[in-house]
Amino acid sequence: MNAPQRLGPDVEPDPSIPLPPYELRMGGKHFKKDHAFVNAGVRDARVLRQRAGLGRRKRVLDWGCGAGRLAVGIKHLMGDVEDYHGVDVQPTLVAWAQEHLADDRFRFTLVDAHNARYNPDGRPSYDIPGEDGSVDVLHGYSVLSHMTASDVAGYARTIARLLAPDGRAALTAFVEEEVPDCVENPEGYLPIPLKGELHCVRYERHFFEATMWDAGLAVSDFAHGRETDGQSMYVLRRR
Questions:
Q1: What is the pLDDT of residues 35-45, one digit of tens each?
Q2: If 0-12 CB within 10 Å is exposed, 13-18 middle and 19+ buried, where does residue 17 land?
Q3: For the stretch 65-80, what's the b/e string if a residue is b when 16 or more beta carbons lie within 10 angstroms of its beta carbon?
Q4: For 141-178, b where at least 16 C-beta lie within 10 A, e where not — what string?
Q5: CA 222, 226, 228, 230: dihedral to nearest 10 degrees?
Q6: Can you name the residues that pair with 119 across neighbouring β-strands?
Q7: Would the pTM count as exceeding 0.85?
C-alpha cells in the first residue's frame, strides 16, 4: 500500500518504547522498517494535534488501533495524554498492545464486533466501548474503508454519542465525487489488486457526508486523497 505524506521532521525510534513484531504491523510492507512504522504513528499524532485538537490533557479513543501504531506515535511525540483507549476486533494485535504498551494512561480493549474482513465470526454490533460524551479525540484510520454503508451509518451514530461537546473524530475513507453511492472493491479504482471481502469500499462524497449528518455529525475539515492509497481524511464534530 502507498503511505500518506509525512508532516514534519522524522523522529528516531526510542528503544524504550516497544514495537510490535513485523507480522503484527498492518498497513503495508514499508512498515516492516522500525523507522517507517514509528514515523507513521508520529504523523498520525501530528495530524490529530493540528486538525482534531490532540493535546496531553485530551481523552483519545483509537478505533481500529491494531497493535498500537498511534499509541507508539503519541508516546514518541508527546509522551502521554490524559487517557488513550485503543479498541480493535483482532485478538492477537490487541493482546500484544495490552502486554507491551499499556500503562496508567494507555489501555486496550478487544471488541467482538462482526466485520466480514477482519472478524467474520463476531457478533452483530455497532458498539464502541466508552461513556457518552467521554471522547475528546476519536481516531479511525482506514476503518470505514472496510465497511458497508449500513455499518458506516451504525457506527457513525455511536461516534456521535461518544464525542464530547467539543470533541472531534478524525476518520479516513475512500470518497470520490460523481461515483455510485457505495461500491465494494471497485474495479480499476486502485493500482493494487483488491482481494477478498471489503478490501476497499468507496463512497460518493455527498452520500457519505449525508450519512454522517443523519447520524448527528457535521464536517469540520476535509482533505481529499492524501491518506493511505488515496483515502480522504474527515474531521467531524457533533452537530
A1: 999 999 999 99
A2: middle
A3: bbbbbbbbbbbbbbee
A4: bbbbbbbeeebbbbbbbbbbbbbbeebbbbbbbbbbee
A5: 90
A6: 115
A7: yes
Place of cell 504491523: 25
Q: Under a CB-based contact definition with an 8 Å cutoff, are residues 117 and 143 in contact?
A: no
**52-113, what's its fold?**
Rossmann fold (3.40.50)
CATH 3.40.50.150, the chain: domain bounds:
52-113, 137-239
Q: What is the pLDDT of residues 123-159, one digit of tens each?
A: 999 999 999 999 999 999 999 999 999 999 999 999 9
pLDDT in tens, 196-239: 999 999 999 999 999 999 999 999 999 999 999 999 999 999 99
CA distance 200 to 148: 10
Angle at CA of residue 55, ends 165 and 14, nearest 5°: 145
For domain 137-239, the CATH superfamily is: Vaccinia Virus protein VP39 (3.40.50.150)
> pLDDT of 60-76, one tens digit each?
999 999 999 999 999 99
Residue 168, phi then psi, degrees to nearest 5: -135, 145
